[in-house]
Amino acid sequence: MATLSTTHLLTQFSHQHPTIKVVIPAEEGDNAEGSAATAFRELTEATYFAPASHPAAAANPPLGFAQPRSAAEVRQIVAWAAAVNAGQAAGARMPLSVRVGGHEPWKRSTPRGALVLDLRGLREVEIEGSSAGHEGGTGGDGVLPPPAVAKVGGGVLTGDLVARLAELGYATPTAASTSVGYVGWATLGGYSGMASVMGMGVDQIVGATVVTADGGMVQVNEDDEMMFGIRGGGGNVGVIVELRIRVYAVQKYLAGNIVYDSSNMSQTIKNFFTGYTALIEQEGMPAGFSGQLVFAKIPKLGRSLVFTFLWLSHDQSGAAAQIARLKSLPGLHAVADTIAEHKPHEWIAMSSKMVAVGVHGGTKAVNVPSLADDTLIDVIARSMTTMPDLPETALTIQQYWPTASEKAVRQSCFAPRRAHFMILAIGASLDPTRGDEARDWAFELCAQLRSRGVALKGGYVAQTMPGDVPIEECFDGEDWKRLTVLKRKYDRNGAWQYAVPQMGRL
């Protein structure tokens, strides 16, 4: 529970800034079912994983939530906290954290004793203009039209972003769930089924507006040093109140699932992993083609291997042949094909239906260099025999293809940049009594991949459990050094100590 001094300070701040909503937990003796207590509980529980999945976090809630509706209000909050932390208010401490979608797996965005900035009020989306002069991106190469630039608020959710972009006639890579906060997803890497064509989420970033630790505000362009920290380092240099991102004039594309007969799951895995690898090595990645692999529970079919297919180019002349190649991989039998033309926001909404919110359990991820590895095939096949029979539990495999983002590497600390696959084990259950079972399955799968030497060093920083691997291993060596220099320069007093990746106070 918040100390009297910090509670008093928050109450005082709220009175002085009536346009900024501040929500704090009920004090002892207050009505536990009152409106303030209910609002605090709802904010605490507005997460992908239910609080019960993290008992320690649930027992140690944050100090409170501040809900700014503009960059100016974010500045007021940060400047006030900086003054408190400088000792101008009875020696109290006012650490800050930022949360939007609440999909962070380990509750790092709602730490004990911190004031959490809920940025969901900053959700504007507007097109700025052509970005043909920006480096990176794939527009103008015959696959996609030249990109435009959209300004997006620091609190926009994926569903709101794709819907608004669709209204304006554009699309951009996003997470598959509508409730994911876009900025956090993009700045920490941003794997996507669209990545092989459009690039990662991090590679779409061409500018940002950042509130600094003293409450100042800076505009960050592609060549600025702070951009290096934003592209892959998340909020470690400040509160990102706006991003400028590449968007593409794509109003519709081919998307859907190829479901393979998985009655002999072990053989299906082996045949797909080896067959898909051979296909890519022989044919390359066709212009416009992207996708990802999912192991999920399919009604009437049970646990199945599913390839989610996307063809993002306006030129669809090669799509049918690629679909045919995927459906005829040696030793495989496609039992369903749902590929059809979709508008971007409609496809994301459909994909999001597979993602339950308020689940119990845990997730983990590892990167692997190739699917054509006998040990990897053995570990994945064995994991399927112990995978809990829960519709919320799944395994996804997303591919990183360097050619789609090779020009954007220079001002980015995201790693790795060589071709690889990111394996995300989602151990989730809406049934609280099975959350531990689901989590243990996901954790054991990733532990096996690491202990048997299949996984690459480090991992996807957004899905790397604190203490699982040294955080610096998630970055290339020189990039990590450069990021720590930026951290010391822009956060020398540890204002963003809770930002992901958690670099602490350097």
Q: What features would you describe in this structure?
A:
- The chain has helices at 4-16, 35-45, 55-59, 71-88, 158-168, 182-187, 195-198, 225-233, 265-283, 319-327, 344-352, 374-386, 435-451, 477-490; strands at residues 21-23, 64-67, 96-99, 115-118, 125-130, 148-153, 205-211, 217-221, 239-247, 253-260, 289-298, 302-311, 334-337, 340-342, 360-368, 394-400, 420-429.
- α5 (158-168) packs antiparallel against α11 (344-352), α9 (265-283) packs antiparallel against α12 and α12 packs antiparallel against α13 (435-451).
- The strands form three sheets. Strands 10, 11, 12, 13, 14, 15, 16 and 17 form an eight-stranded antiparallel β-sheet that branches. A five-stranded antiparallel β-sheet has the order 5-6-9-7-8. The chain has a four-stranded mixed β-sheet with strand order 1-2-4-3.
- It contains 14 helices and 17 strands.
Topology:
Elements: H1 4-16, E1 21-23, H2 35-45, H3 55-59, E2 64-67, H4 71-88, E3 96-99, E4 115-118, E5 125-130, E6 148-153, H5 158-168, H6 182-187, H7 195-198, E7 205-211, E8 217-221, H8 225-233, E9 239-247, E10 253-260, H9 265-283, E11 289-298, E12 302-311, H10 319-327, E13 334-337, E14 340-342, H11 344-352, E15 360-368, H12 374-386, E16 394-400, E17 420-429, H13 435-451, H14 477-490
Parallel strand pairs: 2-4, 3-4
Antiparallel strand pairs: 1-2, 5-6, 6-9, 7-8, 7-9, 10-12, 10-13, 10-14, 11-12, 11-16, 15-17, 16-17
